[in-house]
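Q: I'm teaching a short session on how sequence maps to structure, and I want students to see two examples side by side rather than one. Could you give me a first protein with its sequence written out and its structure tokens following it? Keep the formatting plain so it prints cleanly on a handout.
A: Of course. Example one:
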Amino acid sequence: MSLFMVLTAFSPHKYYVSVTELYLNKNNIQVIIRMFPDDIENSLKDFYGLQFDLMSIQARPLVRTYIDEHFQMKINDLPVYFRLEGITQEDGFFIVLLQADKPKQINMLCVTNSVLTEMFDEQKNIVHVLSDQQKKSFILTKHEKRFCWRPAELK
């Protein structure tokens, strides 16, 4: 976790950022999305017109629908369908955990991340893609919500 996120996690913030870690493991893909709880609460309130406790049982399907709408991935032009593995709060962040099966070969990976961009024009979504030998980072915004890359480009 960056020093920036540690320092801003415990006080009201004027920076709008989420951090997504995308792990390309041997047999699966794990995604961890971290965001400030007040930002996601405001976004969900606007998205659904409801106010609720983020950690409640009732919130889980609503968070799932929101994430499905705002975070997508395609591998080799085929959509990746994620399972919601968990929702938690830790160190001042709201965290969404996703998992999917990994295809044997990845020629092209595309990610769209528009989390919170409907609420905050200044929103930045940092995405770190990590595999056993490679790491690549991208910064997405309201106007640039998507990236594509070929794993061979990361060597």
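Q: Perfect. Now a second example for contrast.
A: Example two:
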Amino acid sequence: MKILLTLFLSISALTVSAQDVYHYVIGARAGNPLGATYKTFLGRYTGYEVIAGVNYSYEENGFAVTGLYQYNYPLFYFTNIYAGAGMTMGAADKFIFHLDMQIGIEYTIQNFPLQLAVDYKPIYAPFNKALGSNGFGFYEYGLSIRYVIR
């Protein structure tokens, strides 16, 4: 029993919410969309992310802005998993609009203002004929490198 209690307390001490590690991050995102990313918190575990850049999938080549509401869950020290939903709007040779879902993992480097994040972002684009009759796209993913503003 003492061993289980010690293990539980050790893991609890290592678990830190994302807001305890940083408040704002800004950086670059490689993937789709390719561009800049900004993330901040609204509460202890909830926040939003804005991605602005070039969208190059499903015959939607052009500039787009994505807004995502996220729930962040501390996995272990300086590492969080997050999931959320939002939408994308933009302009290309036609209007870009789709609903987004997102799941990812981020690691904030201790004592250094840098964060690495990997995410997967499937979409639902009801007006995009390139996706077929169902409108679902499963090929949006990204790697973000962000500067931490505590």
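Q: What should students look for in example two?
A: Point them to this: The domain at 2-149 is CATH 2.40.160.20 (Porin). Also worth mentioning: The radius of gyration is 17 Å.
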